[in-house]
Design brief:
Tetracycline Repressor, domain 2, alpha+beta, 14 strands, 26 helices, single chain, five-stranded mixed beta sheet, Cytochrome p450
């Protein structure tokens, strides 16, 4: 949750809808409010509202979740973070504190809950009543721990104690009375009452609880690790906002993953990435134990996963190709491609899928031209890229991606196919070198010897795949943001000098590289906690790029945001080799598109790739008017 009750939503429009609906429900109740009224209050057409909520019931479900179930989850997570061995009285106080804090941040939604819950359809009401029962069991468990530890005061009935505590939590939404006390005041007074009258202090001989690493609650850890989280930006950014606020650097222990630390603050991500001799690069993103491929299985070694001294030796091989001075030689060719795809937008006749028709093709053709591979191979290269980064997405994976074995098998088959393709390129360029980048890689020498095949294949794959997928995601994400914010589109159209700002804000907003893992080479301290040698740390780039301590209004898209720094390109020695190329491609595309783009709006729900590594939109239906 963002501070001050702001909703950390990836969709600005969705946030407006929820806030408008909560205000109307609070004023009139459930039955008296129509979707048309909500759309009008949110400043949009009713049809646009349906892109975010398919029905009034789905909308009210989310408002109820924000106002009540979210508070229950916050309490459970706060207790879990203390650990099983914590003092049960501290657990009870943590539950109260988290619950009340959530309701304070979501006061509008809590008040709306109180008004509409008796009026909603029975099925919805029953679901929330069932959640209440589950929460009652949770609270009763804490009281039982207190009783079993002999911590209830003389003559205190455990059953009455359970009723008192759960009633205080469950009814707290009714205390939003401007004439009365706030929930915080009531909760604080209730805890004083409980501590003084119903609880006894721990025995003098009781040993203090062991101090250990901050534990990231499983629900939040799952949001960091699970590829499916990244296909739902609203939920993802809510989870990251919770982590930044309550667990900025914490250790996760999920049964199907190796334990990992989650670095979610901008400053921590930069600090860890800068210490590349302490936190070593690994194989990419977090993967379940059952899915992970060893290097021998993967069949290549990427420069992204190298450490010193190898990393520096390999990076310098192509670094000169990607400096701005040399990239300027490619500008004319890029502009021709950009115009081709802007013309294509005009030819498509107003309504089309921007990702499938435009965004995935333009950057890929630029990278293929730099590598020197035939343009007619573009469909194959696009398919392989989507299979590789989308290996957990059932629509994009080579196989169904329903089981770990299918994911592993499909990934190995994709790597085998792309490796066979680039082996032929290597043979050709060693026999007859040209002035393209493929010739540089094929004939690269490390310590006087030709680079091993494992490394040349990794170099090709990194440039061919990541070199375009990240750019296409940022371009598509930028257009999505503009489609929902016509004011920002008008601003950059009126002042083309804002295009560099549009580029940077699109990259920050989208953050196509979701995470990289680092492994501690030795014990190291982060935020006062010790990361042991061999433990892995996930650098959560989308979270860093929404850090409330770094950005003013981080959940707003602003083409004139200044100053703008971000970690979307990584940081330190492993900062993206092609970042200047990406900026140049995007700038040229917007320079060609904006003068011809009269308007753009969504023509259907955007859809994102299921991946926790590299990805973004896989579908963006739009309706455009071209000049």
């Amino acid at each position: 949750m963002a501070d001050g009750g702001a909703l950390p939503k990836a969709s600005h429009t969705r946030r407006l809808i929820l806030e408008a609906a909560a205000a109307l429900f609070r004023e009139k109740g459930y039955a008296e409010v129509s979707l048309r009224e909500i759309a009008q209050a949110a400043g949009m057409k009713t049809g646009s509202l349906y892109y975010h909520f398919e029905s009034k019931e789905s909308l009210v479900e989310e408002i109820l979740t924000l106002g009540t179930q979210g508070a229950f989850e916050a309490s459970r997570d706060a207790v879990a973070a203390l650990g099983a061995a914590a003092d049960p009285v501290d657990k009870l106080e943590a539950a109260f504190t988290a619950h009340v804090r959530f309701l304070l941040e979501k006061e509008d939604f809590a008040s709306a809950n109180l008004k509409i819950l008796p009026q909603v359809p029975p099925a919805i009401r029953e679901r929330h009543v069932r959640q209440d029962r589950e929460y009652a069991v949770f609270v009763a468990g804490i009281i039982d721990e207190i009783a079993n530890a002999g911590r209830l005061g003389p003559g205190v009935d455990p059953t009455l104690m359970r009723m008192l505590c759960f009633g205080a939590l469950n009814w707290s939404i009714s205390w939003f009375d401007p004439k009365g006390r706030t929930p915080a005041e009531i909760a604080a007074q209730l805890m004083i009452l409980i501590r003084r009258g119903a609880l006894t202090p721990p025995a003098a001989s009781q040993e203090p609880a062991m101090t250990c690493a901050v534990r990231l609650p499983d629900a939040l850890a799952r949001a960091v690790a699970d590829p499916k989280s990244y296909a739902d930006l609203d939920r993802l950014h809510k989870a990251f906002a919770d982590i930044r606020r309550d667990y900025p650097f914490a250790r996760a222990e999920l049964p199907d993953y190796e334990p990992f630390w989650a670095a979610c603050k901008f400053e921590d991500i930069q600090s860890i990435a800068r210490q590349n001799d302490v936190f070593l690069s690994g194989l990419g993103a977090l993967m379940p134990r059952s899915n992970a491929l060893q290097l021998t299985e993967q069949g290549f070694r990427s420069i992204v996963g190298m450490n010193e001294p190898d990393h520096g030796k390999y990076r310098v091989l192509t670094q000169g190709w990607f400096v701005p001075k040399n990239l300027r030689k490619l500008e004319d060719g890029m502009r021709v491609l950009a115009r081709r795809y802007v013309d294509r937008m005009a030819q498509l006749g107003g309504e089309f899928d921007f990702v499938r028709e435009i965004a995935v093709h333009y950057p890929l053709l630029v990278v293929m031209a730099i590598l020197g591979v035939p343009e007619e191979d573009e469909p194959m290269m696009l398919r392989l890229t989507q299979e590789y980064f989308g290996n957990a997405d059932e629509e994009l994976a080579r196989r169904s991606a329903r089981t770990p074995e299918e994911i592993r098998t499909g990934l190995k088959e994709t790597i085998a196919e792309v490796s066979a393709y680039f082996r032929k390129i290597t043979e050709d360029r060693r026999r007859a070198p040209t002035d393209d980048l493929a010739s540089v890689i094929a004939n690269a020498r490390i310590d006087g010897e030709l680079a091993p095949e494992l490394d040349t294949l990794g170099y090709y794959i990194t440039i061919a795949f990541a070199g375009h997928d990240t750019t296409s995601s940022s371009v598509a994400g930028g257009l999505w943001a503009l489609a929902e914010r016509p004011g920002e589109l008008a601003k950059v159209k009126a002042d083309p000098s804002l295009i560099p700002g549009l580029v940077e804000e699109s990259i920050r907003w989208t953050t196509p590289v979701q995470q990289f893992t680092r492994v501690a080479a030795r014990d190291a301290e982060v935020r006062g906690q010790t990361v042991r040698a061999g433990e892995q740390v996930a650098l959560c780039f989308p979270s860093g790029n929404r850090d409330e301590e770094v950005y003013e209004d981080p959940f707003e898209f602003r083409v004139d945001r200044t100053p703008l720094r971000h970690v979307a390109f990584g940081y330190g020695a492993h900062q993206c080799l092609g970042m200047h190329l990406a900026r140049m491609e995007m700038s040229i595309f917007w320079q060609e598109l904006l003068p011809r783009l009269a308007s753009v709006e969504l023509a259907g729900p955007p859809r994102l790739t299921v991946t926790n590594f590299v990805g973004g939109l896989k579908s963006l239906p739009v309706r455009v008017q071209m000049n």
